[in-house]
């Protein structure tokens, strides 16, 4: 592999992936999850090596060795039918918040990072105080129930109950923006319709309206699920993720002038000419002479956000590694929260991130002069995210 990831660096992402699978999984069920967590490129994910005449996937071999090291450290134990399960020690590799208890870990002049479950943390916020909730909740696990994880129906119930706790905290002109990725059904090359079902329940049960759909194009995304994309080759690489903008109001605050993009060269030339020449379009619409002749400082963007998620050597990653802390496995590029914070909030407005992760949203809100609150249930992830705030004060 060009990007060398040591077995010791793979242990924590491996434990995290197995926990996501409900605490028990076979090695083949976590390869793609671990690859995502260490930002492995598609090329490195597919690299093969030959040992004693046998060909092996290099990355998968390293994951299996990491599995053995985790076993020797008492973090994993083998179970029946090739399953590996987390031990108590493995489950506590990260310090999880106690349900019902919320602790402020650090503060800045604009925000606070809370260690606690999001259902508990939101209760500390004032009613009608939140202008924007921006978050990427965990995706549902569409697999058999024997490992104890949530199925699709339970996931939907949980998300609706969670969103219900947000409702009294939302300002009258507020927005909720959720990045909801696709979920593939276990053992078959088909997708769940959980996103559509969730949106319908949000509207029917909570009164949340769908304002607009956005798509995030991540050109660097791995070709997952590998079984259907790279092995059997019956599906193409999914490079889009859905982002849904919702609001309890039919008139939430929004101003697309805050997110204008540079004009294309052809538009610049048209502006220089004084606008569009009078002409009829094929559909019968007639363009007036001088149309599109006003320079508004930029073009209104479309609802496709292109942002590669390729962070591998940022200040955040270097800092957490130097501090001996885990790198959060599910980070998104700062472009995503920046787009919606600029678009849907004003300076001093409050942004809430229920699944704080590495505190990317909080750092963007801070830089854009918004107030923020972020909750995260894993203490080490907050401690790592704190490195984004050099002037933070311990609570």
From TrEMBL:
What is the name attached to this protein's record?
Methyltransferase
Family designation: Belongs to the N(4)/N(6)-methyltransferase family.
- Can the keyword Kinase be found in this entry's annotation? no
Q: Which organism is it from?
A: Microvirga arsenatis
One family name in Pfam for this protein: N6_N4_Mtase
Q: Which reaction does it catalyse?
A: a 2'-deoxyadenosine in DNA + S-adenosyl-L-methionine = an N(6)-methyl-2'-deoxyadenosine in DNA + S-adenosyl-L-homocysteine + H(+)
Could you cite one Gene Ontology molecular function of this protein?
A: methyltransferase activity
Please state every residue range assigned to the domain named DNA methylase N-4/N-6. 130-383
The Enzyme Commission number assigned here is 2.1.1.-
Q: Does the keyword Methyltransferase apply?
A: yes
Coiled coil stretches, renumbered? none
Q: Which UniProt keywords apply?
A: Methyltransferase, Transferase
Q: Which GO terms describe its biological process?
A: methylation
Which intervals hold domain Restriction system protein Mrr-like N-terminal? 9-95
